[in-house]
Structures are given as C-alpha cells and as structure tokens.
C-alpha cells in the first residue's frame, strides 16, 4: 500500500475562464489540484446541469487523470469517466439558453406525461380538423345527448379535447393548460396516481353537470366548452396548493394566487360578455376534491399506477425536488 498526502485546493471561478476554457452560462467549475508523488493531475467537476443551482458546488464523484486511468491505490480508485460529455438535446438547449426558441423548447421538455398527452391529443385533433374538416371540430367528437343515449358514450369525454379552432384560441388555451395543469401534475410527482384521480374527478363532475343541463332542456353549452371548464377546475386547484403566493399579472399588477381563477373568469366576461354557471360548478368540484379527497388514498383503479413504468416517468421531477 502506498501512502499519499493529498492536498485539495478548490478554486471556484464563476462564469469566467477555467483552465483556458470558457465556463459558459451554467455556473462554475471546480478545479482541484491533486498533489502527490504519484498524481500530478487536475480533477474537474462538471458544471451543474440546472442553471438555478449554478451557485452550488458538490463533492466530486469522480477523480480522473488526463490519461483516463486513476493512479490512486486500488481501494480508493474511482471509476474513470469519459473525457468528453456526450451531446444531448438538453445540453444543447442549456448551452443556447439565451435563444428564445431554446427557452421555449426547454419549457416543452418540462411538461409532465399526462399533461403532455392531453395537449398532444388536443393539438393533433385540431390539426386533423384543420386539414380535412375546414378547421371545424369533427362531429364524432362533439357532445350530443341523443347519440349518447344510443350508446356513443365517448362523447362524454372527447369534448374535453376541443380547445377551439387551430388558431389563437387554441394556442392561448394550450399555453394556459401547459402552465397551470403542468404545475399541479408536478406537485403530485411522488403520487402521480392521485393526479390522474384529480383529473378524472374533474372530468366526471363537469360531464355530470353537462348531462343534467342537457336533460333539463337548458342546452349543451357546458359540454361545448368542456375543456375551458376543466381548465377552470385545474386553475382553482392550482390556486389552493399555491395559496399565499403572489402572481404577477401581465406585468401590470400583483395578485394573490387564490384570486387568479376569479380574474380568469372576469377576463372572459369582459372579453366575450359570457358568464358560465358551469364555471361555478367546476370551482365547487375542485373545492370539494381539495378539502375532502386530496389527502386520501387513491381509489382502487388508480392504485394500479403506483408502481412500475408510469411512476418511473416522474423520477426526474422527484430528483429535482429532493436536491
């Protein structure tokens, strides 16, 4: 066994040049000078991946010589790493984060699975309608109580995919859903089955109200705008889990998070002169779930999602929160 006296001199150089290399926008690198009779090398700790953690440094997990082979005694030798980091889409976007398109694509990468599937299904549906149906929703996806009575039960679900024609209304709706629904889903990353339960509870509540409205002869307005009411439902739930936070609205004024759903409803009234009683029903359903069901165990079908592939999709969000 060899005896080594190792002196680690750690120099933190933020956002400048490190050993002749530009450090970029990702934080800092740690240069560790390792002095021993056998080792005269530099160990480099790569910059942290996430820019909001750029000011933090961690103990290196790998000590590698420039030749790729450790000169430390075998009991203390660490696993060699590759000299060059493989290029991935995330690393490319991180290195170009000053481009607006990079920031936009990074936000798309952050959309969690269920919200992403919901947005993708809605967008594909709208795109197909634009291509072959004159940008009008397919009849097979619209709510029709008479056809539902004949067995076409999918019409209770498909209206939630209709954000409107593939133009500004669809884009604004998709952007808002991506912001608020994604936030709620990520908050359930440790128990994703509860988010699925929350989503299905909202859809079932709004569909039940829409069916009751249709059966009483008050029309089909609720189910014609079912996606909008589901968004109101999610927005209220988001406001409850972020209660106490302050939200900047249009860079004009600040508002408590719990007041955002009311602002959203007021905005639609001012722009379209429309007020939906179904929005009140959606708020009531979200209120009920938050106060009476959010802390309970998931119902039996949802428990099947507690393990396996589905829960693994949320591992990266759990890792970020646990840091």
UniProtKB/TrEMBL annotation:
GO terms for cellular component: endoplasmic reticulum membrane. The keyword Calcium does not apply. Coiled coil: none annotated. The keyword NAD does not apply. Keywords: Endoplasmic reticulum, Membrane, Signal, Transmembrane, Transmembrane helix. One of its GO terms (biological process) is response to stress. It holds the Pfam family DER1. InterPro entries: DER1 (IPR007599), Rhomboid-like_sf (IPR035952). Residues 1-20 form the signal peptide. It is found in: Endoplasmic reticulum membrane. The chain crosses the membrane at residues 111-133, 153-174, 195-212, 275-293. Its main location: endoplasmic reticulum. It is a multi-pass membrane protein. May be involved in the degradation of misfolded endoplasmic reticulum (ER) luminal proteins. PANTHER family: DER1-LIKE PROTEIN, DERLIN. Belongs to the derlin family. This is Derlin.
